[in-house]
Design goal:
The structure holds two protein chains of two kinds. Chain A has one domain (2-190): Vanadium-containing Chloroperoxidase, domain 1 (Up-down Bundle). Helix content of chain A is 71%, strand content 0%. Chain A has nine helices and no strands. Chain B is elongated and about 60 Å long. Chain B is an all-alpha fold. Chain B has helices at 4-27, 38-58, 73-98, 120-134. Chain B is 64% helix and 0% strand. Classes of the chains: A mainly alpha, B mainly alpha. The interface between A and B is medium-sized, with 34 and 36 residues.
């Protein structure tokens, strides 16, 4: 499995450096300041979305699930990182095309993939269409991390699975507290913040 | 580029202003429109959103690690939250200025839903009048 992971990485990362225009696009897509901001803004705007109070409350619930899921997914990744070390491709292999700065944290699992897929799952659970849109951004972000030499494919697959599972679990647990959350939203409406 | 942290904060503020305009236009939240005309609101929102990212990308190299002048993950999170809060306050403030004649929302309508009928200033004004009337 690890050798297949390495082979897929070498094929994908081997595409880097061939076409300067594609590399420029990937440098943008892999950036910490582009797709993560787009995804976060898309989810934040859910707080204000909806053409009625009922619809807005549903979107605000989605906002809480997506952000809470992403927060717990990042926590799960950091716990994983403190107990398991896998070297980044540019450390483990030679001749890696690196299109990004060289992070020091472990390669597996990818925090970037965990974040993106946690947000996408949070939205998907309540709105399939918008969930798929956010999922496409998360996929592009994860793909670019491999293309740019930051992660092996298994790192982003592992991160994505953590993001999806943790958010799904978070949604299940939070649904047990739905009356309290709805009461908190009603209180925020008086401020008026919800 | 001034400083990556400052530039990032400005990116979030301007992009969030744009995203808020688009969301307010599609949700009918007239009290958040900085211009009382739906199509213009969509256009301004799109320009702010695309313009913010274009400016940020074109100002210089942003792929800098945290220990070499970049922005660490936790700092990025804080700047994002602050940027969105500033954008929301700016939106509500500008909309209150451009729609000074906004009246009170219908009885029983509160929260963001009230911004379909009035601005934040209009809502606060209506509340203080109601309190004054009750007292």
């Amino acid at each position: 499995m690890v050798s297949a992971d390495r082979a897929v990485f070498e094929w994908l990362n081997g595409l880097a450096g061939r076409w300067p225009a594609l590399d420029s696009v990937m440098r943008l897509v892999v950036s910490d300041f582009f797709l993560p901001v787009v995804i976060a803004l898309a989810v934040v705007m859910l707080w204000f979305a909806g053409r009625s109070q009922e619809e807005r409350t549903r979107w605000q619930w989605t906002f809480i699930i997506a952000n809470g899921g992403a927060g717990f997914a990042n926590l799960a990744v950091s716990i994983f990182n403190s107990n398991f070390y896998r070297a980044r491709p540019f450390i483990a292999l030679e001749d890696v095309h690196v299109l990004f700065y060289r992070p020091h944290d472990p390669s597996f699992p990818s925090n970037a993939a965990a974040y993106g897929f946690a947000m996408a799952t949070g939205v998907f659970l309540y709105n399939k269409k918008w969930g798929l849109v956010v999922g496409a951004f998360a996929f592009a972000f994860a793909f670019a991390r491999v293309y740019a030499g930051m992660h092996f494919p298994l790192d982003v697959i592992g991160g994505a699975l953590i993001g999806i599972l943790v958010t799904w679990l978070f949604a299940k647990v939070l649904s047990l507290f739905e009356p309290f959350i709805l009461r908190a939203l009603a209180l925020l409406r008086r401020v008026p913040m919800a | 580029m001034i400083n990556l942290g400052v530039d990032y904060f400005l990116l979030v503020v301007i992009a969030a202003l744009g995203a808020l305009q688009i969301t307010a236009a599609s949700s009918g939240l007239r009290g958040l429109w900085i211009i009382p005309q739906r199509r213009a609101v969509y256009l301004i929102g799109a320009l702010l959103l695309v313009g913010a990212f274009a400016w940020f990308v074109l100002t210089g190299d942003t792929n800098i690690p945290g220990d070499l002048g970049g922005v660490e993950g936790s700092e990025q999170f804080g700047l994002f939250l602050g940027g969105v809060a500033v954008a929301a306050l700016l939106t509500a403030g500008i909309a209150s200025l451009t729609q000074r004649k906004a009246g009170a929302p219908p009885a029983g309508v509160e929260g963001i839903e009230a911004l379909r009928h009035t601005t934040l200033a209009g809502l606060l004004r209506a509340r203080s009048m109601k309190r004054g009337g009750n007292g």
